[in-house]
Amino acid sequence: MVKLRLKRCGRKAVYRIVAIDARSRREGKDLRKVGFYDPMKNQTYLNVPAILYFLEKGAQPTGTVQNLLKKAGVFKEFPSNQMKFN
């Protein structure tokens, strides 16, 4: 199963949003980088077409990533009958 989760980068709290196999560790090899999140500056960059692609294929976002996607309005572009989250 594929998950959309945060992957820490650098010494400060800066994260990439990645599509990764659910069995791999947080810093493991990702399938694709689909976004960036900096909680200190409250900046978010999302590659929406890539995120929608993985969601259509059945990827499950973690709780934090799901909140970020809701804030950005990504789920408005995703058909509601396909939303099956934890």
UniProtKB/TrEMBL annotation:
Coiled-coil region list: none
Gene Ontology CC: one annotated term: chloroplast
GO MF entry, a single one: structural constituent of ribosome
Pfam families given in the database record: Ribosomal_S16
InterPro entries xref list: Ribosomal_bS16 (IPR000307), Ribosomal_bS16_CS (IPR020592)
BP GO terms, sorted: mitochondrial translation
Cellular compartment(s): Plastid, Chloroplast
UniProt entry keywords in alphabetical sequence: Chloroplast, Plastid, Ribonucleoprotein, Ribosomal protein
Entry superkingdom: Eukaryota
Family classification: Belongs to the bacterial ribosomal protein bS16 family.
Name this polypeptide is given: Small ribosomal subunit protein bS16c
Organism: Origanum majorana
Organism placement in taxonomy: Eukaryota, Viridiplantae, Streptophyta, Embryophyta, Tracheophyta
